[in-house]
Amino acid sequence: MNADQKNKINLVVNSETKPYWEGAAKRQLLIRACNACGKVHHYPRTICPHCFSDDTAFVEASGNGVIYSYSVTRQAKPPYVIAYVELDEGVAMLTNIIGCEIDKIRIGQKVRVEFSEAGDGYALPVFTSA
Amino acid sequence: MGINGKSYIVGIYEHPCRAALDKTLPQLHAEIAKGALADAGLSKDDVDAYFCAGDAPGLGPINMIEYMGLNNVRHMDSTETGGSSYIVHVNHAAQAIAAGHCNVALITLAGRPVADAKEGKPVRYYNQQAPDFPFEMPYGPNVTNMYAMCAMRHMYEYGTTSEQLAWIKVAASHHAQHNEHARLRDVVTVEDVVNSPMIADPLHRLDCCVITDGGGGIVMVSPEVAKSLKRTRVKVLGAGEAPKHLAAGQVDLTYSGARWSGPKAFAEAGVTPAEIKYASVYDSFTITVLETLEDLGFCKKGEGGKFVSDGNLISGVGKLPFNTDGGGLCNNHPGNRGGMTKVLEAVRQVRGEAHPKVQVRNCDIALAHGTGGLLGSRMGSATVILGNEDA
Ligand SMILES: [Zn+2]
């Protein structure tokens, strides 16, 4: 990817990420939860970054959140919106905001997950106005 | 065991080139090493410790020590924290000298992103094996939009404005006009900055640093060696380093790792922000400076916008002269790594050898701070405090 373009999506599917992408393919947004300490985290790891337990599992998130921050990459054609969305479950994730009038996007705006095609049957979780 | 007063910077060199089409990467490292050692009045055979970061080719120290013929090295360090690496190296060299592992440490940085682009060489790609990569790269993060999100959030929480951020660039440009090597020497106004093209909201083109080739080097020595040299010596008073990241999803973009590296450095140096006469502050973007100044305690969190306004960072005008070489915003950001030049200008200020138009009077204590990686996700922050012999 060069400095300004958001090019073809190349998902990294490996033993640790595969369930996440399989969930997205089924239109589920997965986050990782720890059975030992009860906390969730993102991006997902097999060992909990809070308590270092290996008793972790994917759980489905509600898909609802609010925009924590965002930016419009103006030089790209077309311009795209990168954002951190705070999920209702309490973790933030890097994502794109799609399907909104770019100049009306605001921090604090309520958004919900959508899925954009990412090739090979996979999908990428993105967000749009709730 | 602290490092305060246990080592000195006695040699520095900033490569004058800003585009290195006719030079290789190892050659730049060697020219820089030669320049820094000459400044110190030392030879390559005096060097018994070598420090470099991810910009060095191959296995870093191994290849560069061979290339340069550094035959007496007994201590090596290739700590990589992005653009702040060289400030971390100053800290580590000070520790190694204090522990008796070495007496003469050489640190070099070199890069040629301008030449590489012209030659069609691929940009060094962010490591696909990094655990964050699968969950971030599909969304098109780049350096500018990742810093832009920090500015956007800072504006939201504290009412910071584009005009306030612009003052940081304005101050850098006032200094760069006096630097014959600076990539950009024209003085700009707040209006120039906010009217320049939007790159990634809310950052304009003039909120962004330059891209340059070249690099810089530092020679650090023990007090005994320092006393044997004719060069004005600059004492290392204290240093701190800290990682900061997305904290498993508890994202806060309104502060940097300077919140932790700064207090460590101040405590070790035994000084307060009010005693700092000059500050080199990493300026990949204007927002980097603003958040860092708050985190280092030069003003309260959220008041950075007010603090940087009205020329407060301009030497001879404001209370905290910063980046008097023109910084990364106007002078030099070699290899996209600005930590080295931050130390170099702080050393010039303490020596009294900055350009007369920007030299801070009685500059007995100076600070240099680096932010490596991305302010908008994960970074390595490093702070060093330097002083003259009496500090
Ligand atoms: Zn846990």
UniProtKB/TrEMBL annotation, chain A:
Bilayer-spanning residue ranges: none
SUPFAM superfamilies in the record: Nucleic acid-binding proteins (SSF50249)
The protein, known as: Predicted nucleic-acid-binding protein containing a Zn-ribbon
Start and end residues of each ChsH2 C-terminal OB-fold domain: 59-115
InterPro entries given in the database record: ChsH2_C (IPR002878), ChsH2_Znr (IPR022002), NA-bd_OB-fold (IPR012340), Thioester_dehydratase-like (IPR052513)
Pfam family, one: zf-ChsH2
Domain ChsH2 rubredoxin-like zinc ribbon, residue spans: 21-55
Lineage, highest ranks first: Bacteria, Pseudomonadati, Pseudomonadota, Alphaproteobacteria, Hyphomicrobiales
From TrEMBL, chain B:
Statement: the UniProt record of this protein carries the keyword Transferase: yes
Single annotated GO MF: acetyl-CoA C-acyltransferase activity
InterPro entries attached to this UniProt entry: Thiolase, Thiolase-like, Thiolase_C_2
Record-annotated Thiolase C-terminal domain positions: 241-387
Key words, A-Z: Transferase
NCBIfam families recorded: PRK08142.1
Protein name: Acetyl-CoA acetyltransferase
Taxonomic source organism: uncultured Rhizobiales bacterium HF4000_48A13
